[in-house]
Amino acid sequence: MKKKILTMMMLGIFVFLIGGCSKAVNEKTVQEDLESYKIEKDTTKEERGNTNGNLLNGGMIAYQGEWLYFSSEGSLYKSKLDGSEIKIIYKAEENDGNIANINIIDDELYFSAGNHEKGGLYRIKDDGSDVKKLVSDTGGGRQEKVYVVGDWIYYDKKYILKKDGDGSDKKQIIEEKSGSTETFSISDGYIYYVGMNYNNEDCIYKLKMNTEAEKQEIYKRNVYDVSVEDGWIYYIDNHTGDKYGNLCRIGIDGTEGGEVIDETVVAYNINDGWIYYILKENGKNELYKMKIDGTENQKFDLKDSQIDEYYGIYVIEDWIYYMTDGVIQRIKQDNSKQEVFCDFGENIEEVKNKEKESTIEEKLVLNNTYQTRFGDVNMITFPKFAFDFPAVWNVEEEVTPTGETVTISNERGAKVTYSHLVGVPVGEDATGGSSVFMMRVEASKIEDSNFVPSYVQATDYSDLGKFVVAKLTVTGELDMKTDSDFRDVNGSVSYAVIPESLLGVDEAVRNPYSVEYGFKYGDGISFVAEAPEDGFTKEEEKCVIEILKSFRVVE
């Protein structure tokens, strides 16, 4: 490997020197070669988030060190390998459905979540904090495959993005005609996948793990469930005929391999020279194993009911994990011991009871951070702001050339909204608004804010002065069609980050708070918390004040 890397470095330097000596060499070509080498160097580290076999089965289980990570019913769990210290670290939002394709590298998990309408790619710390949705998808409802290799995420067969980024660098690297099976595998710096050629024929393709290389057609055949192990491409044959459903293989260079198992294989997982697979016998799924050379074929003596083929089979150290009747079971690879690993009726009930005791505290903990992206997305120089919030709150974001809106909200509807309004007068400069309705609003100081105004490009905004977290209380309303003066009301309560100069009573509030209580910082900026219909609870009030207080400029 060291020789290979050294050789690649020498070739890279040689290409660069030729480019410097000959004006005939296109600068773009040299740059592409260097970029290609950079990505190849990163990905050939082969640090992986899960095995090909486990991801082929859906990636419902992954492990690292002494910890196991697994999913069921839209929740992500963590436990010791012996099944102790089990806890829920993340629950998918109702609209995001189930969790699959789990990868773990260092202290970060990557996974997909989806239902019949939409899905996405997520990153989360292994303690359940700092949840980030990197990619949002709509339509189809598939739980897209996720492979994390080196510094890169390969997502939905077609896309590549940096694993430590925010998802904005997602780039399509594979373009195939629709209708091909959504299956791929990664091995030794190559992606192996199924796609359709221009004659509408299904093929297995091989592609170097970068964005410049040309794909290679390996084998022209309709197949699915591709997994690459030890120089062989394993697949389930999808051709109608006597081989339909059989497990076959072909060399990664296209050399013929042939059948491996001449029966209909429901699921399989290859690990350390062994094939673990499921056959349906007399209406029941049975678990087998055999060596990859076809010898030592054995049937496991399972003492339980039907294996859930949709959950899959997972090889973790010397155990095989699977699900029956909603219970995760495991059996030793040598068939010597079988046991229940997690009963989602018993183990999880205890976890849920503990969670209920600490629900309020968890919802108050600001264990996630959001950074605004207006400058990055629009590729212009503009300050980046940050604020902290509970990981259990939902995040909705939109960035356009005319501004940015980020709204975080809890399950009751309490929400905090960051607004960046390009070209809109705000605060003391606000104009327009309703011509018939006004509010009287009292702005009173609650806390000092962490926000300290400075420079935006070459303009100094420090004269905005000190900022505070203010309570905004509606004390009067005026309908100019029917009223001659304000009607006193015990109105709604909101909170906002504002300059001290906006404290006091304003009797001419005609615009939304994002305008009336915004401030000019290059463009119009506001950070406002609004209550649900029945108002803030005491806990929510404390939480939104802390969120607003955390608002700051990222240096």
UniProtKB/TrEMBL annotation:
Organism of derivation: Mediterraneibacter gnavus (Ruminococcus gnavus)
SUPFAM superfamilies for this protein: DPP6 N-terminal domain-like (SSF82171), YWTD domain (SSF63825)
Pfam (any one): DUF5050
InterPro entries given in the database record: LRP1-like_beta_prop (IPR032485)
Record protein name field: Prolow-density lipoprotein receptor-related protein 1-like beta-propeller domain-containing protein
Domain (Prolow-density lipoprotein receptor-related protein 1-like beta-propeller) ranges: 50-325
